């Protein structure tokens, strides 16, 4: 695959596609310890055919972004939270933890080395960063791998919304994403393999993605494809589901904080019943990739419930979006510790 060339990119029309950038970071774990890691130009991973990740799914990942500010600096949004979450995912899959301070340092090295690929401020583009931790050692029995690989690579991606925020419609799935005592809280590949078919079915029916209900009774909203769900109640509470099988979204927890401290809303993490959507005047899906996607309508059992509008974003959702993206791109003052300048 050809290496990407920053001088040939059309910054205003980037999609969300893999690109082979000049540098990535890799480190190997062997004989009980992380060996020295560093930058490399090689974008292929050497894997034995019996690498545990290939057969038994022992692998976890992260997703984060680097943002170009108006004064041409590059900054990261809460990278310490991604480090902590990868630690949790690693522990759940019996993988060695990549030290959290080294994680943030590796991400910064990759961003700096590929700085030409961080889209200019004002294009809405960002550098999407993908840290990955896999059981790369070979074994055919079902146990933890004898060796691990940690890698961080990146690629420029476009604004999620071309030409402004537009609501999208979702439908509930009859499938479950994860079990309550399974791996829903961990950012692991297996959860995503299980979501491909439900996601594809939703697309075929004309929806942006599907909403998963709780795996016990199918009565409560869990999350939206690869984003968390929130609703704004008619009495101005930012409400979001609480469940042991939801992936704890850093964007969601940031919005909970901003809703309370910057917008003066009430906040609630609790049950969100699929048959009580009338509580909400607005709803959205949030995550690093989606930022905030306003939910126009949600279909369940053949009925489409429209929240604010199928064509326009609601005012509270818009305010949350402006506050969050302002902090990320450095035009709104960040809460203590939320942004780290790379260079
Ligand atoms: C990564 C992810 C999210 C979003 O989390 P952020 O930290 O906000 O990017 C939501 N749901 C799932 C299933 C995810 O994997």
Automatic annotation (TrEMBL):
GO annotation, biological process: isoleucine biosynthetic process; L-leucine biosynthetic process; L-valine biosynthetic process
SUPFAM superfamilies found in the cross-reference section: D-aminoacid aminotransferase-like PLP-dependent enzymes
Enzyme class: transferase
Domain of life: Bacteria
UniProt-listed Pfam families: Aminotran_4
Keyword Transferase: yes
Residue positions where N6-(pyridoxal phosphate)lysine is found in the record: 187
Pathway connected to this protein: Amino-acid biosynthesis; L-isoleucine biosynthesis; L-isoleucine from 2-oxobutanoate: step 4/4; Amino-acid biosynthesis; L-valine biosynthesis; L-valine from pyruvate: step 4/4; Amino-acid biosynthesis; L-leucine biosynthesis; L-leucine from 3-methyl-2-oxobutanoate: step 4/4
Cofactor(s) required for function per UniProt: pyridoxal 5'-phosphate
Catalytic activity reported: L-leucine + 2-oxoglutarate = 4-methyl-2-oxopentanoate + L-glutamate; L-valine + 2-oxoglutarate = 3-methyl-2-oxobutanoate + L-glutamate; L-isoleucine + 2-oxoglutarate = (S)-3-methyl-2-oxopentanoate + L-glutamate
Claim: Protein biosynthesis is one of the keywords in the record: no
UniProtKB keywords: Amino-acid biosynthesis, Aminotransferase, Branched-chain amino acid biosynthesis, Pyridoxal phosphate, Transferase
Entry similarity comment: Belongs to the class-IV pyridoxal-phosphate-dependent aminotransferase family.
NCBIfam families: ilvE_II, PRK13357.1
PANTHER family: AMINO ACID AMINOTRANSFERASE (PTHR42825), BRANCHED-CHAIN-AMINO-ACID AMINOTRANSFERASE 3, CHLOROPLASTIC-RELATED (PTHR42825:SF2)
Protein name stated in the entry: Branched-chain-amino-acid aminotransferase
Organism listed in the record: Companilactobacillus nodensis DSM 19682 = JCM 14932 = NBRC 107160
């Amino acid at each position: 695959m050809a290496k990407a060339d920053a001088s040939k990119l059309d910054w205003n029309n980037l999609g969300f596609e893999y690109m082979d950038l000049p540098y990535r970071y890799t480190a190997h774990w062997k004989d009980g310890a992380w060996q020295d890691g560093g930058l490399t130009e090689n974008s292929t991973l050497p894997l034995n055919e019996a690498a545990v990740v290939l057969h038994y799914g022992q692998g976890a990942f992260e997703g984060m972004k680097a943002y170009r500010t108006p004064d041409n600096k590059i900054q990261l949004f809460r990278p310490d939270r991604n480090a902590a979450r990868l630690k949790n995912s690693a522990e759940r899959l019996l993988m060695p933890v990549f030290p959290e301070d080294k994680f943030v340092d590796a991400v910064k090295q990759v961003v700096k080395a590929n700085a030409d690929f961080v889209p200019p401020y004002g294009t809405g583009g960002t550098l999407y960063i993908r840290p990955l931790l896999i059981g790369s050692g070979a074994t055919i029995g079902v146990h933890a791998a004898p060796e691990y690989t940690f890698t961080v690579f990146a690629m420029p991606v476009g604004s999620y919304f071309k030409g402004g925020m537009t609501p999208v419609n979702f439908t509930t799935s009859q499938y479950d994403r994860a079990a309550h005592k399974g791996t829903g809280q961990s950012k692991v590949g297996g959860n995503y393999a299980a979501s491909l078919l439900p996601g594809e079915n939703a697309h075929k029916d004309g929806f942006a993605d599907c909403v998963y209900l709780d795996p016990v009774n199918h009565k409560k909203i869990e999350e939206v494809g690869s984003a968390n769900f929130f609703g704004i109640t008619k009495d101005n509470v930012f409400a979001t589901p609480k469940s042991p099988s939801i992936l704890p979204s850093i964007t969601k927890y940031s919005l909970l904080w901003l809703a309370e401290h910057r917008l003066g809303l009430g906040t609630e993490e609790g049950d969100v019943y699929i048959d009580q959507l009338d509580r909400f005047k607005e709803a959205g899906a949030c995550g690093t990739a989606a930022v905030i996607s306003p939910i126009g309508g949600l279909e369940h059992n053949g009925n489409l419930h429209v929240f604010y509008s199928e064509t326009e974003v609601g005012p509270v959702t818009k305010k949350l979006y402006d506050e969050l993206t302002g902090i990320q791109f450095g035009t709104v003052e960040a809460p203590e510790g939320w942004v780290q300048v790379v260079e």
